């Protein structure tokens, strides 16, 4: 089973429920950057203006630059394809934060260990959904097994033509975006 996430940008309102839920679940204090950030981008010129609001988190890459630059083996990929950090091995050198093309890896203020979304694997192993998915009031986040072609996430990725961000980096992310303008500055192919 390889887990992934689908973000349906047409349903995201930017309410930040995913951000707040994630920070609460993981005990991240107010004022500290969380594991998810909301992008709010406007493109075009009046009167042809478009606004795009969507969450960005660890993309759970098959080839994660954050793991490959870690000299202390703190970054790793588990058996479900989830990119994680072992806080006991992380020395806080910040190389992983610099290597991530998505800006998804952060350093906590109260500790030396790097942090990033791990799709709430503790919850998933207990039979629950990631907290961001559970708290999203518009069902803009879909979690599931990418290995199962009949899973809801696999069918939606196929039906909606969802794609990962920044494909040009060839990291092969497992977070997909549906209904997103592919010409957004900084997020294009």
Main traits of this protein?
single chain, alpha+beta, Alpha-Beta Plaits, globular, two-stranded antiparallel sheet, 6 helices, 189 residues
In short:
The chain has about 190 residues and is of the alpha+beta class. Helix content is about 20%, strand content about 25%. About 35% of the residues are buried.
List the strand order in the largest sheet. Answer: 8-1-9
Please tell me the overall pLDDT.
91
Helix/strand order, N-terminal first:
EHEEHEEHEEHHEHE
CATH class equals Alpha Beta
Task: Please give the radius of gyration in angstroms.
Answer: 16 Å
User: How many beta strands in the DSSP annotation?
Assistant: 9
**At the third CATH level, what is the topology name?**
Alpha-Beta Plaits
Largest sheet: 3 strands, mixed
Structural class: alpha+beta
The shape, in one word, is globular
Total of helices:
6
Please identify, by name, the CATH architecture: 2-Layer Sandwich
Q: What's the number of domains?
A: 1
Q: Low-confidence runs (pLDDT<50, min 5 residues)? A: none
- Distance separating the two termini: 27 Å
Tell me what the structure shows:
There is one protein chain. With 189 residues, the protein is an alpha+beta fold. It has one domain (3-178): Alpha-Beta Plaits (2-Layer Sandwich), CATH 3.30.70.20. The protein contains six helices and nine strands, in the order E-H-E-E-H-E-E-H-E-E-H-H-E-H-E. It has a three-stranded mixed beta sheet, with helices on one face. A two-stranded antiparallel sheet has the order 2-3. A two-stranded antiparallel sheet has the order 4-5. Strand 6 (106-107) and strand 7 form a beta hairpin. It is globular, with a radius of gyration of 16 Å.
């Amino acid at each position: 089973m390889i887990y992934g996430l689908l973000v349906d940008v047409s349903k995201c309102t930017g309410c930040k429920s995913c951000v707040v839920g994630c920070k609460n679940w993981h005990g991240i204090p107010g004022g500290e950057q969380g594991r998810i950030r909301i992008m709010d981008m406007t493109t075009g010129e009046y009167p042809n203006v478009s606004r795009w609001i969507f969450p960005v988190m660890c993309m759970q890459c098959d080839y994660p630059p954050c793991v490959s630059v870690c000299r202390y083996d703190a970054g790793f990929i588990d058996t479900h394809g989830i990119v994680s950090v072992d806080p006991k091995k992380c020395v806080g050198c910040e190389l992983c934060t610099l290597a991530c093309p998505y800006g998804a890896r952060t350093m906590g203020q109260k500790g030396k260990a790097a942090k990033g979304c791990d799709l709430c694997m503790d919850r998933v192993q207990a039979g629950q959904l990631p907290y961001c998915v559970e708290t999203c009031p518009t069902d803009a986040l879909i979690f599931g097994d990418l290995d199962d072609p009949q899973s809801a996430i696999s069918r939606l990725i196929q039906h909606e033509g969802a794609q990962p961000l920044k494909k040009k980096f060839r990291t092969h992310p497992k977070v997909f975006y549906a209904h997103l303008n592919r010409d957004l500055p900084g997020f294009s192919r």
